[in-house]
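Researcher: Next entry in the queue.
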Amino acid sequence: MAETTADVRRDIELTRERMSSTLAELEQKLNLMQIVRDNPWPSLALAVGAGVLLSGSSADVKAAAATVGATKGASSKIGSALDEMVASLVTGFHGAMEERVTSWVGELKNAIGAPTTSTPRSTGMSTGVTSGMGSGTGAGMNTGPIGQAAAVSDLPVRAD
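Model: Structure for this entry, 160 residues:
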């Protein structure tokens, strides 16, 4: 029997189609998610059984011991690096909050019509208040909780 080129190509195409359909069927049968969806209770029982077997093998204890042994010298290095990171984070957060509060104080002063003179920053310690609080001369500085100084003379005075 002499086959022509067209016959060979047709046979090849039929073989490809059969292989494609066979592969699709295999993929469908081996799709784990579909198997679990179709059979949830046996899948759950299998998972519980595997968990019980693994828990009895003490592999977790061995893994934990190996982890502790591998990280013995690294904890001090990691601790100091984490300390530096936390210090930088807290410093940055403090600066951002201080800047925002200062901005809010300025906006509030503008809203109530108080003078918005800039005051020198304090070190966080109160310098005391002298007499003559309403005169604007000789008024001391009180320091807020964030270290921003607010002059007593900057506060609005009500004339009742």
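Model: The chain has five helices and two strands.
Researcher: Noted, moving on.
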